[in-house]
Amino acid sequence: MVEAGGSGGSRQYGDIIAVGTRPAGGGRVALADPPKPGEPTMRWSSTAHTIDDIEKELARIWAEPNLMIDPGGEDTAGGRHIAARTSVMNLVVVARQPEVGARAAEIISRLTGRHPSRTVVVLSADPDGPPWLDAKIQAHCVLPRADAPETCTELIFLTAGGETGRHLSALVAPLLIHDLPVTVWWPGEPPLGAVPTQTLLESTDRLVIDASTWSGDGLPRLRQLAVLYDRFPRLSIRDFAMVRQARWREAIASVFDMPEYTPFLGSIRRVAVGYGTHDETGAPGTTNIVKPLYHVAWLGSRLGMRVVAPLSAAEPRGRLSTPSRPRPGERAPMHRGLAGRLRSSSGEVSVVIRPVASKMPPGTTLRVEILAERRGSELRADVTAEAENVHVHTWLDGVEYMDRTFKAPRRNEVDLLGEALEVGGRDPVAVEMLRMAAELGGEAT
């Protein structure tokens, strides 16, 4: 563990992986072995307790003529590869907890050569105590190839306590490189309606989140997220939960790419999504349903549908009275899920999002079913996924027509963050999906 002291005592930042040793007092990191091409290594590590001191440390890093050569001029790495700062963006990580910050730093270090940035990781502690600030300043470098100069980026860990930790924008703004875009990655659950968050987003170009990790069903915060598009005109939003489902969308689209199925696009009558839950009853609000909701929102927004009835608890078929309670020792029946309605140009489309007992992570999409009727014919499509594969089955008038498996590897957090940093500007499809998901989930609790 790497620790830094402050008025609140010794505090942990998490595991920082580096090659070399750091002299007492902070500064250049002496390499134990020559750097390997493509492998990030730490060149500098120091500490500070004020914003001014952080800026001085950053200036010290790049005042060094060559981070790979010691002050006496001895080549310690087997070559005179000049280490130059390279930043194409500012990346702000609001981690809040040390373990989250450590995990984020590990992911970012694996992207050093691909997406050089000045990264500021913000942690908070002891919100009710006196104000204090601990900072760790690092420079990480990557050698693209043996005969090329190194490119280096800065990583700043900020741990703030008391009143200091409640002013995100005041902490971050002085440390940003001017004239470079700002990406805020918020792993966890951002308080989107809070004033500090809103102030931070005023200077943000891209917000990266994972709505599938939010508490409850995730829908109240999803509605807050959609409002950000109107409040901050330049802000783009990248949701890992949405990006992970690309392989599902491609599989579903492949069904209707077939000429004999394309006409059914205008005649969809029902969309049902099953998702995994660990709750014995699957009651609304117990499991995050952002990912299954995104499936419906994507299909509805792409086909020009509109929301007629937001999601609400589905009523048991054929029953007007409340079901009886289970007898002692009996397991309560699984909840029927949520139901809503969309309208297309040809009529209403029923929507069902239903919990299914599963060992998969809660909220994981298990199945997407689409029913379409046209001129007396019925098309049913059934899409499932497991490991690296997505399976598509279709039936036309009850006769199996397609049984196809697509190779579609899941993307890890490194891939997802890398893609998020590459994409610039708003994605119109993502904007429409998020807005429809927020509207459709408007009444669900």
Give your account of this protein's structure.
- α8 crosses α10 (428-440).
- Residues 1-25 and 70-80 have low confidence and may be disordered.
- The chain folds into two domains: 2-204, no CATH class; 243-316 and 332-411 and 427-440, Dihydrodipicolinate Reductase, domain 2 (2-Layer Sandwich).
- The radius of gyration is 26 Å and the shape is elongated.
- The relative contact order is 0.12.
- Helix content is 23%, strand content 32%.
- The protein has 445 residues and is of the alpha/beta class.
List keywords for this structure.
elongated; ten-stranded mixed beta sheet; single chain; eight-stranded mixed beta sheet; Dihydrodipicolinate Reductase, domain 2; disordered N terminus; alpha/beta; 10 helices; 445 residues; 2 domains; 32% strand
Number of E strands: 20
- The end-to-end distance, rounded to whole angstroms, is 41 Å
Low-confidence runs: 1-25, 70-80
Tally of helical segments: 10
What is the CA-based Rg, rounded? Answer: 26 Å
Biggest beta-sheet profile: 10 strands, mixed
Shape: elongated
| Percentage of residues in helical conformation | 10-25%
